[in-house]
Design goal:
alpha+beta
Length: 507
């Protein structure tokens, strides 16, 4: 008896179901083993391999949604490959099984390249994908004797498919619950009582112009921008956290979370800016961080002559290199932060411990989920330096117009402009605005908080009906003006005056 080819819809379903079973099994094993799922491992490897211009395009297009865009794209590609695998196997099971197996091996290779591990989960996923495909193909194979037999095979395949969907869904849900880290949630809640209570510098009245269109001075944690290389947020309990401070030091330190908190703890309002922030972009936020001064730990360890940078590593393998001369400045205020806006660090912002350095872009200074700090020379290149970005990256003086929004229509006459300016660790001394290339006019500045935070501004311009372009520029406290030269974010941050076009209409 010869078998008939599997109908196309059923063949496509075989590929999708086998892939779903593979991903669900891998997700479950990853949750049980507390490692990234194969999906996350592949995504992390793709992030590492993606050319820098493509990464910057993704950030420019999707902003903080770049990871969701990557995950969505991966899911679509996987679905297409699964359908192709099924259609290739209408008569014989092995072509699709080979394709799924190769994709599974790619997941194993990705897991092997990641410092977090996950090889067992990837292997499980690959095996389940191949075995599941073979089994589903056998179930879906129609007979050749009578139409009734075809109907029987269809019913059997529908029942089997339903069971696979339920099993894959249950495995994925359980794995997701385990990976979300109930223990980490409990650890973070418990950390609130362990972090010493220190006075937070008060934010003076008039520090923002919210009514005129600026952000609030302190950014709520839920709204604080997030740009990092972690496709899935690392789950690390405070109880398991260890920091090793080593390298070119006289005395190596290894600290637990509680031992870190036994050092001097202080609170500082600090504005962080991403080097990927385009002119006028949203990748800037301010919070009051609580933590241990990095300088205190470096002095305790004793930095040896010739050392140049603090090479920090995240639990997921990300690295950054921060100049030691900056960290050792008595008034720099760099922190190993444990708290953010009155609560322990949110998991997505680095719980249990991250680094925060005023005045430097985050890619050289703001390592999240910090677990290792090596005092070394610049001979060792960090993650982004190996990808063509600058070794050192002081934040540039910049400003942004938040009101009016581009393309809006507003009544002619007195038009209120409002925005922010920043020059972390220098401070903002002056902001000016102009319309349609005319004379610069001074803007009103909000109450200054400190030189490591942004400063709000507002101005009123009398504008006639018609289309207008307004620009802003800032000057820092040293008298250095913001450059008008427009440059890309690569290799050390964008520059240029922000401009907004809008239309005024007759009231």
């Amino acid at each position: 008896m010869t078998s008939l080819p599997v109908p196309r819809p059923r063949a496509a379903a075989i590929g999708l179901l086998a892939t779903a079973a593979a991903l669900g099994a891998g997700h479950l094993v990853a949750g049980l083993a507390a490692v990234p799922s194969p999906f996350v491992s592949v995504g992390g490897a793709l992030i590492d391999l993606t050319p820098e211009p493509v990464k910057e395009l993704a950030i420019a297009l999707f902003g903080t949604g770049d990871k969701l865009a990557l995950q969505t794209g991966m899911a679509l590609v996987i679905a297409v490959l699964a359908v192709v695998a099924g259609l290739l196997s209408r008569r014989h099971w092995w072509p699709g099984a080979v394709l799924i197996g190769l994709f599974g091996l790619a997941g194993v290779a990705a897991a092997m390249s990641r410092p977090e591990g996950g090889v067992l989960a990837a292997l499980t996923s690959a095996v389940v994908g191949v075995v599941g495909f073979r089994w589903l193909h056998r179930v879906a194979q129609p007979g050749a004797e009578a139409p009734a037999e075809v109907d029987t095979s269809r019913r059997k395949f529908l029942i089997t498919s339903s069971l696979v969907v339920l099993g894959a869904g249950a495995a994925g849900i359980v794995g997701g619950i385990l990976q979300r880290g109930a223990d980490v949630i409990s650890s973070r809640l418990a950390a609130a009582a362990r972090i010493p209570k220190v006075p937070e510098p008060p934010i003076p009245p008039g520090a923002d112009f919210v009514a005129s269109g600026t952000p609030t001075f302190l950014t709520p944690n839920r709204d604080f921008y997030r740009i990092d290389t972690a496709l899935a947020v690392p789950q690390l309990r405070a109880e398991d956290w260890r920091l090793r401070l080593h390298g070119m030091v006289r005395r190596e330190l290894e600290l637990t979370y509680d031992e870190l908190l036994q050092r001097r703890v202080e609170a500082r309002p600090i504005t962080l800016t991403c080097v990927s922030n385009e002119v006028g972009g949203p990748l800037i936020s301010t919070a009051t961080f609580v933590g241990v001064p990095v300088r205190d730990l470096l002095l305790e360890a004793g930095v040896q002559p010739g050392a140049q940078q603090l090479f920090t590593t995240s639990v997921d393998g990300y690295t950054a290199g921060t100049p030691l001369d900056v960290l050792l400045e008595p008034d720099r205020g760099a922190l190993l932060a444990v708290g953010m806006n009155g609560e322990p660090l949110p998991t997505e912002h680095g719980f249990p411990v991250r680094m925060v350095v005023p005045g430097l872009y985050g890619y050289v200074s703001a390592t999240k989920w910090l677990v290792d700090a090596e005092v070394t020379t610049f001979d060792r290149q960090h993650y982004w330096e190996r990808r063509g970005w600058a070794r050192q990256a002081p934040i540039k003086t910049e400003s942004r117009i938040d009101r009016p929004r581009p393309g809006r229509t507003v009544p002619a006459g007195p038009v209120v402009l409002a925005g922010i300016a920043w020059a972390q660790h220098s401070g903002i001394d002056r902001v000016e605005v102009r319309a349609d290339g005319g004379e610069w006019q001074p803007a009103e500045l909000a109450t200054d908080v400190n030189r490591d935070t942004w400063r709000m501004w507002r101005a009123t311009l009398d504008l006639p009906p018609g289309d207008h372009v307004v620009e802003c520029r800032a000057t820092d406290r040293s008298g250095k003006p913001q450059t008008p030269e427009h440059r890309s974010v690569i290799p050390d941050g964008a520059t240029g005056w922000h401009a907004v076009e809008f239309t005024c209409t007759t009231p």
